[in-house]
Amino acid sequence: MWKRCGATALAKGLVIAAPRSGSGKTVVTLGLLAALRQRGTVVAPAKTGPDYIDPTYLSRAALRDAVNLDPWAMPAERLRELASLQATGADLLVVEGVMGLFDGAADNTGSTADLAAGLGLPVILAVDAERQSQSVAALIAGFARWRSDVRVAGVILNRVASTRHERMLAEAVAQTGLPLLGALPRDPDMALPERHLGLVLPGEIDGFDLFLSAAAQSVGDYVDLDALLRLASPTPEASEAGEPLPPLGQHIAIARDAAFAFLYPHLLDGWRAQGATLSFFSPLADEAPDASADAIFLPGGYPELHGPQLAAASRFKSGLAAARDRGALIYGECGGFMVLGEAIVDKTGAAYPMAGLLPVTTRIDRPKRVLGYRRLIQSGDLPWPGHLMGHEFHYSFARQTRLPPLFAATDARGEALPPMGAVIGRVMGSYAHVIDRA
Fold first, then answer.
1. C-alpha distances in Å from residue 407, one per residue of 362, 417, 422
2. Are 230 and 261 in a shared domain?
3. Same domain, residue pair 204 and 300
4. Residue 430: phi, psi to the nearest 5?
5. Which CDD domains match (predicted)?
6. What is the pLDDT of residues 243-301, one digit of tens each?
7. Are residues 229 and 257 in the same domain?
8. pTM (2 decimals)?
9. Residue 374 is part of which domain span?
10. Is residue 256 part of a domain?
11. CA 256, CA 260: separation in Å to the nearest integer?
12. How many angstroms separate the CA atoms of 239 and 304, rounded?
């Protein structure tokens, strides 16, 4: 489908996983990417699952755009294609896992382990060693033996308290037969700030480059990078994956700034490959979408953190209204859906007027987390197949008048959910982030 440019050599690859969330997996991966890059290794980053935020960190560390590899929402052929494209011309493909190694969707599929098995890549297990010593061996051995199709090839210990602690841990790991690649000391400064949808975006963190340098220094000092590189396996060649989702239009104007930051690179690349023109604009800077665009895409992000700026963005809102009046397709996902509505009520209870193209008010002052994969059947004018795969993650909720929904939906288990979103003419949106065709 997509053609490679330049070098055709494929990087070897490996997966960085952990027994659970909160093990320091992201910091370890960032340190590895930055340390390897500083040695002259060309590293290609990827993230397991539907995460939007971690890929921005991985991209900063690698100085190369990250890609999402979603083993629940993408067919196996798409995963191999995207991994192969990402690995082209690099020395090492580094895939950061999601949650614990074997944690997946509610139907028990889509885990980091599933991705590693499907791509044939070895797993490096990043283990939080805080508050344990010899018991770490049982933990590691259990993960290494749980699935015969998943090869745990090495271990990196994190948050090690002292030299004595490291020695006890190393003796325990030796009993598993797996190589201990490194032991990173406990450092309270090696933590990233979080908010309601995950990590704070790196562009909003003062001193992020200093943090990244410190992570690279720690990994370079305490991890055997040569041994890690020797464990990598060839990335599989791409197979025919079928067509990606068609573009929303021939010229798609896409909102992109701190309020609209959640975009899947594989969608944009697929649209460009099919001949669509993409232009970008910033609602926070009160920019209107290009007047020649026949489709406008408002992706997800954090509009609830920018209520005053969006409420005052008169050129942006009048540009959306003009696009509606000329018959352009206007599509919003999650945060974009919120902005298409009449108002957003932030966590303080303050209401900010939005575009008013859909009779929807969204509130985050009484947060309730909604999270999970979705199977979607669309009923709007989206130029996509009827059956789609997507994901939902938000703390706001929508109040709307009775309108035709955009999607019928089930969860990952196939259990029916309430209809999602709203459609008025060619203006439509929902809380779902669409990932691929079913």
1. 18, 10, 8
2. no
3. no
4. -160, 175
5. CobB_N
6. 899 999 999 999 999 999 999 999 999 999 999 999 999 999 999 999 999 999 999 99
7. no
8. 0.91
9. 251-437
10. yes
11. 5
12. 41
